[in-house]
Each structure stands twice: as structure tokens, then as C-alpha cells.
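User: Let's play a game. I give you a shape written as C-alpha cells, and you guess the letters that built it. Ready? Here's round one.
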């Protein structure tokens, strides 16, 4: 056996306890950022998810699609507008959001998983009234941006129990059938909680929570949810990290074993996080 073979054998043996730990457990992955727009990274994510599924880890993929929505809005002459990090969604925009997320991005991801011999099923919050919501009340009117009331997990568990990888686009309806845009991080956290998932994984374009936002060597590997208010007061959790970390905290408080923010710019970051001693990113528990 040469050195390369020995390294490969060691990697597989080291992964075994983690495969056993997660076997038949549910992991929810929120897919977004650079890993969605870079073809090499996208290919790595899809192969990771198929591998997890094949070794008995029930994987649910929840996705956004901001760049694709921006591109389509530009094509039809609608300006993209954001308020406090959330997309302002008027009547014309919500139609584009539904078309792009549920029609284009969702089915492309299903097809990409199929290229890796994965059996995926595309769905959105509207299907089977899976996600019910109401208009999000905020300081500034956000239009048709929704806040989740309830998640019916039966369509998701039916897919999982039949060997499919559910791929979920985060649009939903209210009691009157009006479509709303739902923040993908928020939706992933709530879905993970309702499924009693073992892990919630949020893919981002940064290493995780940094003690100094300009120094990636200051990564904080583990955070207890009780520490989050203190870290906010210190300014360590600020800006765009606040809503992502709030989603992690919400998921853990609702019963998810742990939530983690990982760097989607690193190829196979999902496998590194779930199937190795090192882990990657910042874990909340």
C-alpha cells in the first residue's frame, strides 16, 4: 500500500463513527452564497449530499436564490431593493421570486443531484400547504415577505422515507392563498426544528463567527446559545451575522441538537463538518 492509499484508508476509517452517529438521522442544509454560483463548488455540494444520503443520513436541502432573482428582475426592468437585509417584495417581485425559486433554481438543483446519481424531489412551501405563513410585520413595510406560522413536515418525511432527497424552495402561502417570499435561513431553521433534525447547517461565504471580523484566524469554533446576547453586546455578532445566528439559536431552542455556520467557499465543507474530528465553522448548541 502506498502513502496515498494509506491516507484514503485513514480518512474512511475516521469517518466511520460519524456515519454511525448520523445514520438514519435528519440533517437540514441551507444552501446559498458562493457555493450556489460557482460551478465547481456546486458540484462538490451536490456530491456531498448524495454521499450523505447513500450512507443513510437523511438529508434535506433548503435553498435560496438571490443572484438568480436579481438577474431575472434586472431582465424585466424591476429594481432589486433590500431593507435591513430582507428583499422588498412587491406584487410583481413575488411572482418573479416564485418563478425563479420554485421553477428554475429548484429544478436545476434536482437535475444536478440526478447527475450524481442522487434521487431528489423538488418542492416548495406551497406544495401540500407545507409552509403556512402571514405577512411579516416590520418597522418598514417589506411587501409580500412572510413569517412562518406552521410547517407540515409530512411531505418532507414521506420523501425521506422513500429514499428521496427533498429540495425545498422557500416560498409559502397564507390562509387566503397569497404567495409570500420567506427568508431561506429562517425557513431552514424552522424546518429543521419541526423535523427534530440532528443538525442544521447554514452555508455562507465566511468562515463562521469571527472575534475580529477582519481576521479569519479569530474563528470562534463553539458558542452556547446562552452566550449570544453577550456577544451581541460586545459587537462580535453584528450586521448580517445577526439574522443567521438568530436562526441557529431559534433552531437549537426548538430542539435541533446543534446548528453550524460553515464556509461554503471550501470544497466539501459539508463532509468536513459532519464526518471528521476537525469540523469547520462555528457550532451553536
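Assistant: Ready! My guess for every position:
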Amino acid at each position: 500500500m502506498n502513502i496515498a492509499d494509506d491516507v484514503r484508508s485513514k480518512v474512511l476509517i475516521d469517518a466511520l463513527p460519524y456515519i454511525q452517529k448520523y445514520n438514519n438521522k435528519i440533517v437540514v442544509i441551507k444552501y446559498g452564497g458562493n457555493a450556489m454560483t460557482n460551478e465547481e463548488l456546486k458540484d462538490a455540494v451536490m456530491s456531498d449530499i448524495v454521499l450523505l444520503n447513500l450512507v443513510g443520513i437523511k438529508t434535506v436541502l433548503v435553498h435560496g436564490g438571490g443572484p438568480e432573482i436579481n438577474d431575472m428582475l434586472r431582465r424585466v426592468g424591476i429594481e432589486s431593493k433590500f431593507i435591513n437585509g430582507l428583499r422588498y417584495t412587491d406584487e410583481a417581485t413575488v411572482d418573479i421570486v416564485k418563478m425563479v425559486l420554485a421553477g428554475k433554481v429548484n429544478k436545476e438543483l434536482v437535475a444536478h443531484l440526478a447527475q450524481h446519481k442522487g434521487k431528489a424531489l423538488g418542492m416548495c412551501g406551497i406544495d401540500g400547504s407545507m409552509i403556512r405563513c402571514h405577512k411579516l410585520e416590520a418597522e418598514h413595510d417589506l411587501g409580500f415577505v412572510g413569517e412562518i406560522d406552521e410547517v407540515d413536515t409530512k411531505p418532507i418525511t414521506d420523501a425521506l422515507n422513500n429514499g428521496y432527497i427533498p429540495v425545498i424552495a422557500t416560498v409559502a402561502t397564507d390562509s387566503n392563498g397569497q404567495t409570500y417570499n420567506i427568508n431561506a435561513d429562517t425557513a431552514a431553521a424552522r424546518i429543521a426544528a419541526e423535523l427534530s433534525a440532528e443538525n442544521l447547517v447554514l452555508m455562507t461565504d465566511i468562515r463562521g463567527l469571527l472575534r475580529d471580523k477582519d481576521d479569519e484566524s479569530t474563528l470562534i469554533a463553539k458558542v452556547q446559545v446562552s452566550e449570544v446576547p453577550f456577544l451581541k453586546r460586545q459587537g462580535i455578532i453584528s450586521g448580517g451575522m445577526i439574522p443567521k445566528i438568530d436562526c441557529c439559536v431559534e433552531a437549537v431552542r426548538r430542539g435541533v441538537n446543534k446548528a453550524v455556520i460553515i464556509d461554503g467557499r471550501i470544497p466539501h465543507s459539508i463532509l468536513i463538518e459532519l464526518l471528521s474530528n476537525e469540523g469547520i465553522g462555528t457550532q451553536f448548541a
